[in-house]
Write a structure and sequence with these properties.
Arc Repressor Mutant, subunit A, Transcriptional regulator, AraC family, 4 helices, about 60 residues, transcription, mainly alpha, about 0% strand
Length: about 60
């Protein structure tokens, strides 16, 4: 659920502050968020934000 919330927040049109997203989604800190994001998606949150499709739960397969 935290990961899904993070995906939605990343797609917001305003500037992304990773620490704010981490805390809003219930992660202990930004490093924990990024590590778990990478474990679930295989990519960093920054890379995801640059390649995000119209479907926020979609993660490209490589």
């Amino acid at each position: 659920m935290r990961f899904q919330k993070a995906l939605r927040l990343i797609r917001q049109p305003e500037n992304i502050h990773w620490a704010d997203i981490a805390y809003a989604c219930g992660y202990y800190d930004q490093a924990h968020f990024i590590k778990e994001f990478h474990a679930f998606s295989g990519q960093t949150p920054t890379k995801y934000s640059l390649t995000a499709s119209m479907h926020p739960s979609h993660l490209p397969m490589f």
